[in-house]
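Sanity check

After download, print the first record. It should look like this:
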Amino acid sequence: MKVLAIDTSANVASVAICDGRKLICEYTLNSGLTHSETMLSMVESALKSAHLSVDDIDVFACTVGPGSFTGVRIGVSIIKGLAFGKNKPCVGVPTLDALAYNVCDFSGDRIICAVMDARRNQLYNALYTGGTRPVRIKPDALTPAELLAGELAGKSVILVGDGYEPAIKNGITPDGETPYKLRMSSAYSVARAAADIIDGCDDPQSLTDLTMRPTYLRPSQAEREADEKERAAKNK
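Expected structure tokens:
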């Protein structure tokens, strides 16, 4: 089973091609360019490097949030565009689940805390136990960083995600340092998560409707600004 996976939910752009859970190739870019500028060319390069075409891919996967509103929409649109013309299944992977896969193999008895910087001193977060695959013990949440620090106080934690440094600055103390590369988005982890989702599904084609739904956890900036303007107008 050939899987093509991408992650566009944060600043890092990543694409991977796997044969089941075996990595064939992975490209990662952290250049500051927008995903709309880079992702399609990265997909083309990955396919070329693997000597494959879109026709050879059995399953397409992407992260569906939380994360950048624009990034998530770009990723979902690209994967649906690639898959629908070939009538291949798509798998949407929660972004925090994919991050947990980065470190689950060596987390030991530590709780995996996947964190993404949500700005305004808040963190998207979820908690997992590790092993061959992460097992969720807390649902996705948008939490003030200091409140999350209090929740994790006294627990043995491994941190992963681009919220790593904001989490530490706000009092979360990990049990050991996570290497920088493993903190960032990885399409290989997205592919691993997608493979596990497929293994638990009798009808992979149904996963497009079941999983390809963006998760935002809060209104977009445009929606927040519109709400603030409306409240300000009412208070005049």
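If your output differs, re-run the checksum step. Summary of this record's structure: Residues 69-84 form the longest helix (16 residues).
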